[in-house]
Design a protein that fits this description.
By secondary structure, the chain is an alpha/beta fold. It is built from 16 helices and 18 strands. A hairpin with a 3-residue loop joins strand 11 and strand 12. The longest helix has about 30 residues. It comes from Myripristis murdjan.
Length: about 500
């Protein structure tokens, strides 16, 4: 029995030496890789405790903290800083408003003051007939033309005054239906308005949609038959309930004296008066400057009109010379008042034995044009003149200083001229001209002027370059050159 007891103890010791996972399990599976463990030890992986993230204070905790003395003082300090800053900005804004110079009220402008007027004395020479003129409205719109002076187009047999029919359109120009279509198309553009050059049948043509009339020899009508003149003014200038848009009454006189033109402008009551002030014979730049200054000082610039040509006088390039065409374009489009041009003045059209030469529509501008370009250089010159005209017209319609700004004469001599156009706090424009055959230097050193100005436009391509800076104390202009400079407002 003692031997059995000893064997039992030995068996128990052997079992204790065996690993707990060794051998086959109850299902007869093979031992797992962990069978190498000895003495029944088991490695257990204890997961780490999850890190507690801060999610902010609860409502109760915030209420407890917010009531502490430190946070109360901080809130009051921030509130005081906020309101002090707000009040400071308010006071600063009020001070700036009070110290800033008041803006000038914009003057009342009529539609004929907002852009150049364009005279077509012979419809056949310009576009063959009224229908052709309607097709050319797009070209005139590009030039920013605001008014079209057309005619006369009524039946007027030569040397047969008894056969004049003022209410009938000449077959050479077209017919009444074409005229109505032209008026309708022009009004759709919203930038072109038509008016006829007539001395009779005013009521009939005004009923056809005409926006005004231009009368030649206005001083004779006003002085010889004053009652008739009063009726004409009442018919044209008095508005009606059916027509809110104002009509314009333009007078034409051959007088060249600034005194006579000023007196006539006051006595006749016309809206605009075309005269020969700028094209008077033997007039140099000094006399021209004096005439401009006198008319500007005596009348509102909305009643001033400037022209160097016309239906009875001819074209700008012929009267002033082709070399000075661009100079005169810049002069007319920068003077205070309404510029008036003859058809073709934008391209330098010259009179060829007649005041009504045929209009040139170059193929580069009009692909289907019937006229051939005689010379490429001439065509390029016409296109360049037209681009300058268009740029000046656009600038005049966009800049307040040029449209209705004040006029200040800066310098004038027998062959040169410089003046300033300015309005309130808008950009200033300085126009300088040299009519001489040699270069000239203009000393522009007034206190109101800066030392330098920027070139806006010049009649000489690339000299000086656009947007370049020039010195005003010694502004140099080439022969027959004009330039338009600009500089900002400064208090």
């Amino acid at each position: 029995r003692s031997r059995d007891h000893s064997e039992a103890e030995l068996d128990q010791e052997e079992q204790e030496k065996q690993p707990m996972t060794g051998g086959l399990d109850a299902c007869g599976d093979a031992a797992s890789p962990g069978a190498a463990e000895k003495n029944g030890s088991v490695h257990l992986k204890i997961p780490e405790e999850a890190e507690v993230k801060f999610t902010g204070l609860s409502k109760e905790e915030l209420l407890r903290v917010a009531g502490t003395p430190g946070w109360v003082r901080t809130r009051w300090a921030l509130l005081i800083v906020f309101w002090l800053g707000w009040l400071g900005m308010l006071v600063a804004a009020v001070v700036l408003i009070l110290q800033a110079p008041p803006c000038r009220d914009l003057p009342e402008l009529n539609w004929w003051n907002k852009g150049p007027l364009y005279q077509i004395g012979d419809v056949q020479a310009f576009s063959q007939n009224l229908k052709g003129l309607e097709q050319r409205l797009e070209s005139l719109e590009q030039l920013k033309v605001k008014g079209l002076v057309l005619g006369p187009i009524h039946v007027a047999p030569a040397d047969q005054p008894k056969d004049l029919r003022f209410e009938e359109i000449s077959p050479d120009a077209g017919n009444l239906e074409q005229f109505k279509g032209l008026v309708k198309a022009a009004h759709k553009k919203a930038v072109l308005f038509l008016f006829l050059l007539l001395q009779s049948a005013l009521v009939f043509w005004l009923d056809q949609g005409v926006d005004g009339v231009q009368l030649a020899g206005v001083e004779r009508v006003a002085s010889v038959v004053p009652l008739l003149w009063s009726d004409i003014r009442a018919i044209v200038q008095n508005g009606t309930e059916e027509r809110a848009k104002k009509r314009v009454l333009i007078g034409v006189t051959e007088r060249t004296s600034a005194d006579e033109v000023s007196s006539l402008l006051s006595s006749t009551g016309v809206d605009l008066l075309l005269s020969g002030v700028l094209r008077a014979a033997n007039t140099d730049a000094t006399e021209r400057a004096q005439s401009i200054q006198q008319l500007y000082s005596s009348h509102n610039q909305s009643r001033l009109a400037w022209s160097l040509g016309g239906r009875a006088d001819g074209h700008l390039a012929t009267l002033g010379g082709p070399a000075l065409l661009r100079l005169h374009q810049l002069l007319l489009l920068t003077l205070p008042g309404t510029p008036v041009f003859n058809y073709g003045d934008e391209i330098g059209l010259e009179d060829e034995g007649t005041n009504f030469p045929k209009m040139l529509w170059d193929s580069a501008e009009e692909p289907n044009g019937t006229l051939k370009v005689r010379n490429r250089e001439q065509q390029e010159e016409r296109e360049s003149s037209r681009r300058l005209f268009q740029a000046l017209s656009e600038l005049r319609g966009r800049e307040r200083s040029l449209m209705f700004g004040d006029f200040l004469l800066l310098y004038n001599s027998s062959s040169s001229l410089a003046f300033l156009r300015s309005w309130d706090q808008s950009e200033r424009y300085l126009a300088a001209f040299n009519w001489a055959d040699e270069a000239a230097t203009l000393p522009l050193s007034l206190p109101a002027l800066p030392q330098h100005a920027t070139v806006s436009l010049s009649t000489d391509d690339g000299s000086p370059a656009s947007n370049s800076k020039v010195q005003l104390e010694a502004l140099r202009l080439g022969p027959g050159q004009a330039t338009l400079l600009k500089f900002p407002y400064s208090a």
